[in-house]
Amino acid sequence: MSGYFDYNATCPLHPAAREAWLETSERFWQNPSSLYREAGAARQRLEDYREEAAMRLGCEAEEMVFLSGATEANNAVIAHAAAAGWERIAVSAVEHPCVLEPAEALFPGKLLLVPVGPDGRVDLEALEAILREHRPSLVAVMAANNETGILQPWQEARQLCEKHGALFHCDAAQWIGKLKPDGLGECDFLTGSAHKFGGPKGIGFLKVPGQGRPLRWLRGGPQEERRRAGTENLPGIAAMMAAWAARETDLESAARTGLAGRQGFEEKIRQVLPEGQIIGADAPRLWNTVLLTVPAPANLKWLTRLSARGFAVSTGSACSRGAGASEVLRAMGVAEAAQGQVLRLSAGWSTTAEDWLALAEALAAVREQLSGH
Ligand code: PLP
Fold first, then answer.
1. Separation of CA 242 and ligand 1 centre (Å)
2. Number of domains, the chain
3. 243: CA distance to ligand 1 center in Å?
4. Which residue from 43, 224, 317, 368 has the fewest beta carbons nearer than 10 Å?
5. Is 9 among the domain residues?
6. pLDDT at 373
């Protein structure tokens, strides 16, 4: 695993998550909606996990909806806005495609894009001007960007929304498990995804406001207070909660050692690959992420050579739309040509400073190999 630098795409399953999944599948496999005693025990577990998730975020258990992950959660929020008949919504220009695409589809011609500065952070003055002039009912600003790792000023954005009477949605898929969740529970809507922090794929949560129009997402059975029909994925929820608990216990030390490793890498890169540029170098970023531009040839060649050397990296977000083009980089004003030159390097909780240095050396060796390509 030491060469795996694609944690922002997904993570290996945490051993505690695996154990929780197996235990729950064996002991609590009954349908939590059934009425006999054993099913009641499954239901109780489900509600205990809901309490625990709410406790971690600092919100109420009734506000937590379990669903399949951040894509579903973000789609549910935008669909809710459309179903409520809200005139306008605003989303940051660097949101994940699972916010941008439904927003474009459901609010054609009425979607307001909140720009980011050259540092990749949402422009709060522009946000306030949008709130004043256009009065959107909902604003979405993510917590941490999946491509660049840049931390967004979501706390300030949330306060501006409160001041101007708009609801605030925050996609925290890349934040949870990496940084403290303090204050996230104050967002009206909040998205999280288990596989981004060591839980299984296909499980996540959405925090919704306790008051106001109730969310009606998937229709069918009465699960999740009719907000999201479908038999609950209790083993997945148990595994997600186990991974989350494990991450929260050593969050600060992981962030500290992770940051030191990343900084060591960045220093080394300045020596061995001086043409390389770190996107958002001066902005606050996730401790695990570096978006690096490399010289010609195009990033895919670099990725292949690195892969042959045992390093797994990405050419940007696994989910960015279309080859080479990145909405995030475009929003930051990065030239189109440079967009095909980026490598996203995202480490994990057990990545060491040595692993980072080995990656820097591999990049230098690949540069040698590819020079005069
Ligand atoms: N939002 C962000 C910021 C992400 O990084 C991702 C994953 O790439 C998603 C949403 C989608 O998450 P999921 O895989 O749970 O649907």
1. 20
2. 2
3. 17
4. 368
5. no
6. 61
